[in-house]
Design a protein that fits this description.
mainly alpha, two-stranded parallel sheet, two-stranded antiparallel sheet, 3 helices
Length: 123
């Protein structure tokens, strides 16, 4: 169980980092757009001229509006961060909660398939 939770934590952390990077990239840099020469060439349909297809930019525009793309990246970062924290909390709880008996009067103990034994404090 622990190894599974650790695996989920690692995956969620890397997804959170990825989407956080995408969110920053989409808000702080210009999107890549087709180069004006390429658009002109495409309109003229003149093959054979070596032209740069894209202008300089840090990311490609998804098939949604720019504002929606930025919001999507922020939502995904938040979603993966919540998954990470929730799984981390589950791992902590798995490790934390063990049975501790303080001041027992009587405790019933049974092993797997074994006989139940009643223990009581000598008073």
């Amino acid at each position: 169980m622990e190894l599974s939770l650790i695996d989920v934590i690692a995956q969620a952390f890397f997804q959170y980092q990825y989407w956080l990077k995408q969110s920053v990239l989409r808000t702080q840099t210009k999107p890549r757009e087709p180069h004006p020469d390429f658009i002109r060439w495409w309109g003229w349909n003149r093959p054979g001229q070596p032209l740069a297809a894209w202008s300089v930019g840090g990311w490609e525009i998804p098939f949604v509006a720019e504002r929606n793309a930025i919001e999507h990246a922020a939502q995904m970062a938040d979603r993966w961060n919540r998954i990470y924290l929730r799984t981390l909390r589950n791992l902590r709880d798995l490790r934390r909660y063990c049975v501790t008996i303080n001041n027992p009067q009587q405790v019933n103990i049974a092993a797997d398939g074994g006989q139940q034994v009643n223990l009581s404090s000598p008073n």
